[in-house]
């Protein structure tokens, strides 16, 4: 574990190596403020997005008194092998193994534990093998992924990617060269195939009968969730969010819809929730975490 020196003096960052339950090594970063932590916070990122994208948010939360952990899922960023060609995994591994390792690393008796999920990170809440001890979660841009929830132009682009570009690229490369579209890291072949399959359904894998044993585990999620989506998020508009979040049947879920024009934040889209101008959104999440007494955090919203 080594500390870097390229951050403001009031935030200390440590590079960590986590080990998932199946032995896979994961690169992680831990952000600490100068004052004793009031709570622990784990950030579950979006598909193809490396943990560095969440650096500003993690620093901000650390200054607010949170001990923050980010990670690269297997196959992504510093947790990727030298080549994705021939690399095999299950898309669900990012939640049930990788995010789970981060949660276990931050689980501490007497310390509140919260989760922030971006897109896939909101899916992963229900994939965690242990739900106890989590006091609440805040998600940004989590949705069902079905093209029918998207605006017409985005719908056409997505269908072209699933039906034409993706099959050609993966056949040629052995993985999805997602970075060529400027949308993040390249993706392992298995991630692409499963993602494409579940995006065929209006409620994502909740509509896939082969996934019943997985989706039934979402019933175990009983901590409160706030799900935030912007009206200009073409990939996960509010209707898409509502379709997916209905799967958390036993959790108190509060849906929040943002109109970027009224919020004065500029365009948000699917990625703008973690850009610097979105700091007011970060503060809303952190304020909510701070307002929750640890002893009653699972009681509801």
List key phrases describing it:
single chain; 301 residues; alpha/beta; Rossmann fold; nine-stranded mixed beta sheet; 9 helices; 9 strands; 29% helix; disordered N terminus; disordered C terminus
Could you characterize what this model shows?
The termini are far apart. Helix 7 (238-245) links the parallel strand 8 (225-230) and strand 9 (253-258). This protein has a single domain, classed as Rossmann fold, CATH 3.40.50. The model is unreliable at 1-8 and 295-300 (pLDDT under 50). It has helices at 55-63, 93-106, 120-123, 152-173, 189-198, 212-215, 238-245, 260-263, 279-290; strands spanning 2-3, 11-19, 25-33, 39-44, 66-71, 113-118, 136-140, 225-230, 253-258. It is 29% helix and 18% strand.
The number of domains is: 1
Helix and strand sequence: EEEEHEHEHEHHHEHEHH
Main-sheet strand order equals 1-2-3-5-4-6-7-8-9
| Level-1 CATH class name | Alpha Beta
CATH superfamily: Alpha/Beta hydrolase fold, catalytic domain
What is the correct CATH architecture? Answer: 3-Layer(aba) Sandwich
SS content category: alpha/beta
Determine the N-to-C terminus distance.
37 Å
CATH names the topology as: Rossmann fold
What's this model, at a glance?
The protein is α/β, with parallel strands linked by helices and 301 residues long. It is built from 9 helices and 9 strands.
Secondary structure blueprint with pairings:
Blueprint: E1 2-3, E2 11-19, E3 25-33, E4 39-44, H1 55-63, E5 66-71, H2 93-106, E6 113-118, H3 120-123, E7 136-140, H4 152-173, H5 189-198, H6 212-215, E8 225-230, H7 238-245, E9 253-258, H8 260-263, H9 279-290
Parallel strand pairs: 4-5, 4-6, 6-7, 7-8, 8-9
Antiparallel strand pairs: 1-2, 2-3, 3-5
């Amino acid at each position: 574990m080594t500390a870097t020196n390229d951050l403001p003096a009031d935030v200390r960052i440590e590079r960590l190596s986590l080990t998932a339950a199946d032995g896979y090594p994961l690169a992680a970063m831990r952000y600490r403020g100068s004052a004793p932590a009031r709570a622990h916070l784990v950030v579950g990122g979006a598909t193809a997005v490396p943990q560095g994208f969440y650096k500003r948010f993690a620093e901000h939360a650390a200054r607010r008194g949170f001990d923050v952990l980010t990670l690269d899922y297997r196959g992504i960023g510093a947790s990727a092998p030298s080549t994705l060609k021939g690399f095999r995994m299950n898309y669900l591994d990012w939640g049930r193994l990788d995010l789970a390792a981060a949660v276990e690393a931050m689980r501490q008796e007497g310390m509140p534990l919260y989760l922030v999920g971006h897109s896939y990170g909101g899916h992963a809440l229900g994939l965690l093998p242990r739900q106890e001890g989590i006091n609440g979660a805040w998600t940004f841009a989590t949705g069902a992924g079905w093209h029918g929830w998207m605006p017409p132009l985005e719908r056409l682009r997505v269908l072209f990617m699933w039906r034409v570009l993706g099959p050609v690229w993966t056949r040629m490369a052995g993985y999805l060269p997602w970075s060529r579209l400027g949308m993040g890291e390249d993706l392992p072949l298995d991630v692409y195939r499963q993602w494409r399959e579940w995006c065929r359904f209006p409620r994502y894998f909740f509509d896939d009968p082969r996934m019943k044993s997985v989706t039934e585990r979402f019933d175990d999620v009983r901590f409160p969730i706030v799900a935030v989506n912007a009206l200009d998020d073409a990939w996960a508009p509010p209707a898409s969010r509502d379709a997916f979040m209905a799967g958390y049947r036993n959790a108190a879920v509060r849906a929040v819809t943002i109109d970027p024009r009224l919020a004065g934040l500029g365009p948000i889209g699917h990625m703008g929730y973690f850009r610097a101008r979105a700091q007011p959104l970060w503060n809303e999440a952190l304020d909510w975490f701070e307002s929750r007494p640890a002893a009653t955090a699972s009681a509801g919203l």
